[in-house]
Amino acid sequence: MREIAGCILAGGKNLRMGGEKKVYLKYQGETFLDRIRGNFRNFPRIYLSVEDRGRYQEEGMILVEDEVPGAGPMGGIASVLRRCREDAVLVAPCDMIFLSEASLEKLKSTYEETGKPVLFEGEFLPLPGVYTKSMLPRIERHLESGDYRLKSLWEKEDYVTVKGPGKEELRNINRTLEYRKLAWIPAKEAAELLKNAAEEISETEMVSLKEATGRILSEDLAAKEDQPPFPRSPLDGYAIRSCDSRGASWKRPVRLSVTEKIYAGQMAKHRVGEGEAVRLMTGAPIPEGADTVIRQEHTKPLADGMVEICEELKPWQNYCPKGEDFCKGTILLREGKRMDFAAVGMAAAAGYEKVPVKRRVRAAVLATGDELQEPGEPLKPGGIYNSNGYLLGARLSELGVEVERSVRRADDTEAIAGWIREMREKVDLILTTGGVSVGEKDLMPEVFETLGIRKLFHGIQVKPGAPTMAGMYGKVPVIALSGNPFGAMVHLELLVRPVLEKMTGSSFYAPEYRKGVLVSDFVRPCEGLRIVRARWEDGRVSFPEQHASGVLASLGECNCLAEIEGRKEGVRKGETIWVRMLANNL
User: Fold this and answer.
1) What is the pLDDT of residues 89-146, one digit of tens each?
2) pTM of the entire structure?
3) 214 — alpha (psi -120 to 50), left (phi > 0) or beta?
4) pLDDT in tens, 494-533
5) Distance of alpha carbon 41 from alpha carbon 58, whole angstroms
6) 556: buried, middle or exposed (CB in 10 Å: 19+, 13-18, 0-12)?
7) For the stretch 259-279, what's the b/e string if a residue is b when 16 or more beta carbons lie within 10 angstroms of its beta carbon?
8) Beta strand 160-162 pairing with 118-120
């Protein structure tokens, strides 16, 4: 019976990971090492190849120190083969965390059947694979010659292959950005995390109707009186009893006595009796006794105080009853309603001089970067204008947010942290732009750590602006957006609007979606969610020529964001897609 052990490669300097030990990085609550070790459960013995035994304390595995430092995986494999008692070892790197137990079992059983080294078929991949003791002499010669390439080792080896898993299982996580991507979450999940963490604003205030536009009602508004508060004439004419017009026509008019004339704002002095009419103007109260109003164009006034009625009318024709618009006690506007022109008009019609509203959301905006200068300043070499701060501030103002402060800071952790610390006491929401990726000047992760901001996520599965991060600084959401203008703007729409919905209790901030037929192509790959600026017009959707996330010029001609997902080759003219409108109800 051929014996085979498991071997996990954990050595190396991990330079691509910034020196962090990959075996102890976590994914979904487990370390990389624990995830892959679990898939070796059917192996009698597991060897862990390490660069320094003193840095590891792992139970249930045999630590083997790399005897050929600097030789890469080949040195670790050779050290294990020298040490192991088994005939072969199935070797897998610790950063291949999606590799399944079934795939390892397939390699193991193939070796047990053939006794030969085993790799997965298809494109050459030396790991994972079964390395046998018989390979050790050739490995030693490669090490002596300084040829550490596993491919050159296998080129002269008599081995067998077995059908392998998909590419996803065989993916290595060996760079910082790749590791961070593991923690990236879907856009909807990110929005929900932020929305759930944010708190609704409880403070309210009374504002005059002249100041109410754009404000969010803090309670229901009920009608104080009927509207109209009396039966009202919708036109200029005569209030009469409909029965007095029976049989009337231009050839056989009916004569009625005009008892008085009233205008809007006046009340009749007398009840309309048999054979009588009251002259009245549009908006005037209809006197008691009358049940219809005849249009003046269908009458002939006479000089003796009489009028000829030239049309037969039915009861309640041309008659606006009391409470036609709304009745006393009716809820006219609900809590959370954003006051637009129609709502202001309705409140005025109901007699409200002032209305109760939520305090405005207060926000602060910080643009980071040594290269930023304020508009109007002469640009220095390498400098650019701070467009992001103004872009975000203006959009927040459009959405009814009170922007307390919009500033810029250089790439300095203490300066950025100090400003955020100061703003926490003054605002409900903090937005920053820039410094969220993995470059040397991407300081926002360090700022979050310095301030003790409770991180909700760092990275979203959407392009552009994927490195966006967010957290809670006490009760204040801090959303660190991409430094690319379009990326920052996209995530303001995706993340900030749900936060505003929670803070204000208003559904106004929920996105409006429309369908549209494409009139142009977008041929970039969109396997994951990609947000593309677009224009919706009469059910047709077009894309501008410029799409780069750093480009602002083409944003001005757009009124929506196209959401494209699961399309490797993009989308084509004639297809139907959904777009998120940018100006809903504004």
Assistant:
1) 999 999 999 999 999 999 999 999 999 999 999 989 999 999 999 999 999 999 999 9
2) 0.75
3) left
4) 999 999 999 999 999 999 999 999 998 888 877 789 999 9
5) 15
6) exposed
7) beebeeeeebeeebeeebbbb
8) parallel
